[in-house]
Amino acid sequence: MPRIIAIDLGTKRTGLAVTDPMQMLANPLETIETYRLMDFLKNYFQKEEVSTIVLGYPTKLNGTETEMTPKVLALKEKLEKAFPNLKTELVDERFTSKMAMQSMITMGSKKKDRREKAGNLDKVSAAIILQSYLERK
């Protein structure tokens, strides 16, 4: 069964998560510089079979757009053109960063590790987005 990949887009860094081959569990994959995203995905899709790309869709608490919303929509369009054989879906990402931080605390991450946002928080946020997609599905 092909995997599902999730993207938590950021202005500088982007978190990625992927399902296991049975599409039951979401696992943090990588945090990369945002400008490298398309190259990373092209390489990843050559190695792994993927059926769906899940994008975290940012909105404010009242449902209105954030400054990242148009960037995510532009990325969705770009992904659909670059990978027309893959399904691309948007998933509400409100609270995922807070949930990721709480998850890291619960799992016993040291304060120093949690501060290293470049590696941990973004990919854990992507995993939370992906897990919520799996639970809805």
From TrEMBL:
It comes from the Bacteria. InterPro entries: RNaseH-like_sf (IPR012337), YqgF (IPR005227), YqgF/RNaseH-like_dom (IPR006641), YqgF/RNaseH-like_dom_sf (IPR037027). Residues 2-100 form the YqgF/RNase H-like domain. PANTHER family: POLYNUCLEOTIDYL TRANSFERASE, RIBONUCLEASE H-LIKE SUPERFAMILY PROTEIN. One of its GO terms (molecular function) is nuclease activity. It is an enzyme of class 3 (hydrolase). GO terms for cellular component: cytosol. Keywords: Cytoplasm, Hydrolase, Nuclease, Ribosome biogenesis. The keyword Nuclease applies. Its main location: cytoplasm. Could be a nuclease involved in processing of the 5'-end of pre-16S rRNA. This is Putative pre-16S rRNA nuclease. Belongs to the YqgF HJR family. Its EC number is 3.1.-.-. The keyword Oxidoreductase does not apply. One of its GO terms (biological process) is rRNA 5'-end processing. It comes from Algoriphagus ornithinivorans. It is found in: Cytoplasm. Pfam families: RuvX.
